Amino acid sequence: MLRRWCIPLAGLALAAGALAASAPAAASSHPAGHTIHLIRPAMHGTAPMVGSGRTSQAAQSTNWSGFAAHSKKYNKISASWVEPTAHCSGSGSQFSSFWVGLDGFNSRTVEQTGTEVDCRNGSPRYFGWYEMFPAFPVNFSNTVRPGDHFTGSVTFNGSGHFTLVLKDVTRGWSHTVHKTLSGAARSSAEVIAEAPSSSGGVLPLANFGTVHFSNSKVDGSKLGSANPTKIIMVNSSGRAKVSVSSLSNGTNFSVKWLHSN
What we know:
By secondary structure, the chain is an all-beta fold.
């Protein structure tokens, strides 16, 4: 059975911290042409998943898909991915994000960085960002194109200090963000494709085709060695909005779009 839990949005504020970037492009919480929306903790439950002759538990989420380790405290998550091509049509808006992060699977904060593609009136918009939820996301103004190869990492440095790194290997830009968040649980580490949310709930998922993640590591070891939980994004009726492959070599997997809602 799918179980949802909601995140209060009142009183959100930008977290304090310093931003250092190797590219001259500025970061802004209100970049031109982009509506503020949030990359939020998973709203999920569990359901049986059958495979290899045995039954295990997979998570169903209304906004997350991918893999999450969640059996101890974690200090670092990293992965690579290729920015997928959006297939936009019609006059409506759809949204999708691809990221690495700590927390959020079973806690109310998330420290995360990644990329996005939104469909606006039939046209795709690509960009990178970071977020220290529940603070608002901050988008980077650097150019992002489909096919760009990205690496991302989030590292806990002690005493509430985090370093978030996003690199566009194809275009040669990168951002290193230093943030402080007291009380972060560090209770999960994840590599995720997400349907972002607004104050009204989960937004329609943009048709991104298939996104491929690789070299996924937690605390320097293969993500698969942490016995991660597979997460499948579903709508409010339980219909899958994506399919998630198994982990290959403990580090590689793909997420395929199926439905917007």
